[in-house]
Amino acid sequence: MDWSKTKSIFIIVFLVLNVFLFILFMDKYENSQLSLRSPLSPDERLVEDNITFNSLSNEADPQPYLNAKAYEFTEIDVNGLEQQTGAVRNNILLDSQLAQPVNVANPSSPEELEALLNEFVIGGENYEFWTYEQDEQRLIYYQQFEGMPIFHNITGRLVIHLNDQNQAVSYEQTMMSSIEKFPDEQDLISPREAFLEYYKLNAVEPNSEVIEAELGYYSIIQLIDAASETQVLTPAWKMTIEQEDGDLEEHYLNAVNFSIIEIDFEGLEFERLEEIEDTVE
């Protein structure tokens, strides 16, 4: 055996082993140092995640709760309709067929239908265009109160149906009535505060931007009997967030107590009213 060569091999092996152990030691040391550091503040996390929300205000004017009731359409309402044939379902749903189709050049911005709403739809001036659902060939409107939208409410909803030529041919309508303000106004969370609280839940993707915060109302009382129950509506923020890929997301937050609002979109379909009526009976 060549002892000198063997000794050299052992020395090299020990050097490699020492280097390896030193690397392990430094890795554990750095990890321990990271664990000792204080966690990032929300502001630091926002910078790290590249979240932009400059459009959000730090202030919000107080607003009251509202209560309202679903309007019950009558035969007088139906007989008073012009250039259409209507019928009432479930007491609170008006189903109408237009005598003449109305052309809609751009369903995503149906300006032509403003005259239809103002002249031929009961209380039509109180509805605001919401979205165009192309697959369903329909336009969705929601009622508003004093310029503030009532978000996703089955008893304040107008659905205009289109044919294959993008012509409005019929509509279904529910309407809220007896809308009253509670006597006391509530201090509201500012849109910036609401967003930061939402962001703490890790619900916002990195490289996103808050495009808009809109104040409206949302029902906080679960619908049981749509034709008789009085609803209580709370001020709520709708946050529109643009993700890195350009997709837009809408998130809803209670403007009084920070709670997140989950929208039941299936529950907004008018067939739900028939289910409620059957349950009550």
TrEMBL record:
UniProt-listed Pfam families: YycI
Listed transmembrane segments: 6-26
Recorded GO CC terms: membrane
Residue stretches making up the Regulatory protein YycH-like domain: 43-256
Protein origin, superkingdom: Bacteria
Key words of the record: Membrane, Transmembrane, Transmembrane helix
Protein name: Regulatory protein YycH-like domain-containing protein
Organism: Jeotgalibacillus campisalis
Taxonomic lineage: Bacteria, Bacillati, Bacillota, Bacilli, Bacillales
